[in-house]
Write a structure and sequence with these properties.
The complex is a heterodimer of chains A (437) and B (300). With 437 residues, chain A is mainly alpha-helical. Chain A contains 17 helices and no strands. Chain A is globular and about 75 Å long. By secondary structure, chain B is an alpha+beta fold. In chain B, 17% of the residues lie in helices and 42% in strands. Classes of the chains: A mainly alpha (437), B alpha+beta (300).
Chain lengths: 437, 300
């Protein structure tokens, strides 16, 4: 009984047991957004891609941008959680679970957007039946499916101890089915030395694997663009550039999640300014790398003066001026100022910066995809003028909002199923400071 | 503190605004709303073996330059000053060209055998009318080939119709001989016609033809005051046979039916490495489950 009283789960029990009125309202709102998205999806299925802004010239739009964005966030989660785990970073515990959730949830949403790009979904099996290893699309299918398995295994290994705790904590007021589910998922883990040894070994290996897979998979995604002879895409730097951009956007999403869960579940004692600054500094370093890669990429294109590259850069500085400036100037400079200067390092400032970075990185993907397709090497002949340029329709925006809503919903549900901060390894109040913070 | 932060943000945004350049870019659509000042038409004439080809080019002179007029109907006609014959109406293409091909036989000619060709755009509320004409006498160029003393000889015979409607030679005119290449015409010589309207040229030996050695040979009278542009053509297999060589550069391996070996090996190594680690992690989970059945010490 004494053990039950000292169980760290006691403090997190309300998060798992109860959902407040605000919580239900939030979930209802998300379901409404998803409902609108479902209607938009039906419109697209019934009428085809005509209801989108994608045409013969610009064949990719915000769907592919969302795909790149969510996949990037996912790989960032894997890289951050894997690195924090592998290097046993002292402050990792309050943020590592969120990074793991970001990885898996984004990985479930991202590929859905690539499916929305496909006009003939009935031909999807051909990708497997007649897939050619030489095709970057085949590389991506193999890479993403491999990554999904790896990330699920890593998440499962990471939550196994907490699942055992939830199974054994008798004071937890939960429905029987959930207790049974915890029992089944805990695999009979009781924390014997041999079980701990095996779990640690498997987790360490998978942490190393998710880091390497995240780098490879996001490079493969970059190669889909860079192996094609298109102005702005045919770049050797695209692989590492995409990886850096992914981790950068993922660190910003992590900060936003930290801020939200800190407020909603009153975790001020666990997620402190120290954690925001630590992740903020990761974001700052990545901002510098991202700025360097961006500058390097555009500088070589501009100095080379290849005709179509010049046209593309002109397009970026004219028609796509604001997206270009926000993604490549504001998105780089703001973290350097806010996190770099100690006087600005408040929790709210860092979170605001993270929001700007998320918007900037989404726009970064947009200006990688759309302007290039609007300025091809071989312009389309005798097409309607309105087909030459791209403007997203309400259907695309609705499904984009749905992607974000599904992300929020799954995150909310995941946080109701398992504690948002790992609690295993804490046996008493006196150790909380050491283990959690 | 907040004021300093807000000031820094405002400053960075202002600097961004200052950076925005002005001017136009390549993708901008030209302004097409300017009022046209004048419609202009040009008429080109080419006489072939049995027909004439009339090409009318219609464009608009505007304040901001010249623009070709597309989908405008041009009416072609031929006349001798007393009677006229309509050759039909043809729409202009994107370049502003309307092309009319008409048989020479039956076209009204004046007492000198000259035919006056006219192209006319009647105009509308938006675009003013335009007209162009050209006067020429029909002529015909025939090409024949022969080998004399192992020399390859090209002979041209140029004729016109006289007032009685009989065929008569054209004398003393200059004929230019060409062979069409990919981008332009290759001139291979000039012939001055004798009194019988004939002339010869020794045909060069080193000209590359198609895979069978075929060459298309053109003989032309160009911008003549009486005959305008006249063209005759014929085909002869006197060219050097073209041979295609397989380029000694590697083909794009990605287009081959089977992936390159290095790619298959790399993929297998990577996938095997990754999935082996997955299997190991799953094995450890299975072992954790089995261990739980053997012993149950107190948790934590």
């Amino acid at each position: 009984m004494e053990n039950e009283q000292n169980n760290p789960l006691k403090e997190f029990a309300p998060q798992l047991e109860r959902t407040t009125m605000q919580g239900y309202t939030w979930i209802l709102f998300l379901l409404l957004v998803i409902g609108v998205g479902f209607y938009a999806f039906l419109q697209q299925v019934l009428h085809g891609h005509e209801v989108t802004g994608m045409r013969d010239n610009v064949v990719w739009g915000v769907y592919i941008v969302n795909f790149i964005f969510f996949m990037g966030v996912s790989y960032a989660g894997a890289l951050i959680s894997g690195t924090l785990h592998l290097f046993k970073t002292p402050w990792r515990k309050p943020v590592i679970r969120m990074a793991e959730f970001i990885t898996v949830i984004s990985l479930l949403i991202g590929p859905c957007f690539i499916l929305l790009c496909i006009g003939r979904l009935d031909r999807l099996p051909y990708l497997v039946l007649f897939g050619r290893i030489q095709s970057p699309i085949t590389w991506d299918v193999i890479a993403i499916s491999t990554d999904i398995f790896g990330c699920f295994i890593f998440l499962y290994l990471a939550v196994l101890r907490d699942l055992a705790l939830l199974r054994d904590y008798e004071l937890l007021k939960l429905p029987k089915w959930r207790k049974k589910l915890y029992k089944a998922l805990a695999l009979g883990y009781t924390g014997t030395p041999e079980q701990q040894q095996r779990l640690n070994r498997a987790t360490d290996i998978m942490a190393a694997m998710v880091i390497s897979i995240a780098i490879i998979v996001y490079s493969v995604l970059a190669w889909i663009f860079s192996v094609t002879l298109q102005p702005g895409w045919h770049s050797t730097i695209f692989g590492p550039y995409f990886v850096i951009a992914a981790v950068y956007s993922g660190s910003a999403v992590l900060i936003i999640c930290m801020w939200v869960f800190r407020k909603v579940y009153h975790l001020e004692a666990y997620i402190t300014k120290k954690h925001f600054v630590a992740v903020g500094i990761i974001m700052l370093v990545l901002a510098a790398f991202f700025g360097y890669f961006t500058f390097s990429d555009y500088l070589t294109k501009w100095y080379g003066s290849e005709k179509n590259d010049e046209l593309l850069i002109q397009l970026l500085f004219k028609k796509f001026y604001w997206p270009f400036i926000i993604s490549n100037y504001v998105g780089v400079l703001l973290p350097l100022i806010v996190v770099g200067l100690a006087r600005f390092r408040t929790i709210n400032n860092i979170t605001f910066t993270a929001v700007v970075v998320v918007v900037a990185l989404w726009l970064n993907r947009y200006i990688i995809v759309v302007p290039t397709l609007e300025s091809p090497y071989l312009p389309i002949q005798d097409a309607r003028p309105e087909w030459l340029n791209y403007t997203a329709t309400w259907v695309e925006w609705s499904l984009t909002a749905t992607g974000v809503a599904v992300f929020c919903l799954l995150f909310t549900l995941a946080s109701k199923f398992i504690t948002i901060i790992p609690v295993s390894g804490v046996t008493g109040e006196e150790k909380k400071e050491d283990v959690l913070i | 503190m907040k004021r300093i932060f807000a000031f820094a943000l405002l400053l960075s945004l202002m600097s961004v605004l200052v950076l925005k350049p002005a001017g136009s870019y390549a993708g901008e659509k030209p302004d097409t709303t300017a009022t046209p000042v004048e419609s202009r038409m040009q008429l080109a004439y080419l006489c072939g073996a049995d027909s004439v080809i009339l090409t009318a080019t219609l464009n608009l002179k505007k304040e901001d330059g010249t623009v070709n007029l597309k989908n405008a109907f041009i009416e072609f006609s031929a006349s001798n000053g007393e009677s006229a014959k309509s050759l039909g109406k043809f729409a202009t293409d994107q370049e502003g060209n309307a092309i009319c091909k008409a048989p020479v036989a039956g076209l009204p000619a004046d007492k000198d055998g000259m035919i006056n060709y006219t192209a006319k755009f009647t105009g509308n509320k938006k675009y003013p009318a335009a007209e162009a004409s050209f006067k020429a006498k029909p002529a015909r160029i025939r090409l024949s080939f022969s080998i004399q003393d192992s020399l390859r000889i090209l002979k041209v015979d140029v004729t016109q119709k006289n007032l009685k409607g009989e065929t008569a030679p054209i004398a003393k005119e200059k004929i230019l001989v060409y062979i069409p290449r990919i981008f332009s015409l290759l001139k291979i010589g000039e012939i001055t016609l004798d009194d019988a309207g004939s002339g010869t040229l020794e045909f060069p030996k080193e000209i590359v033809g198609d895979t069978l050695g075929n060459l298309t040979v053109l003989a032309k009278i160009e911008e003549n005051d009486n005959f305008g542009n006249v063209q005759g053509q014929n085909v002869i297999n006197w060219g050097v046979h073209k041979q295609y060589y397989k380029a000694e550069v590697p083909s794009r391996e990605l287009w081959t039916p089977i992936a390159p070996l290095w790619m298959i090996i790399t993929l297998i190594i990577m996938l095997a490495g990754v999935w082996a680690h997955y299997m190991y992690a799953v094995y450890e989970l299975i072992m954790i489950k089995r261990l739980s059945k053997r012993e149950k010490p107190p948790l934590f």
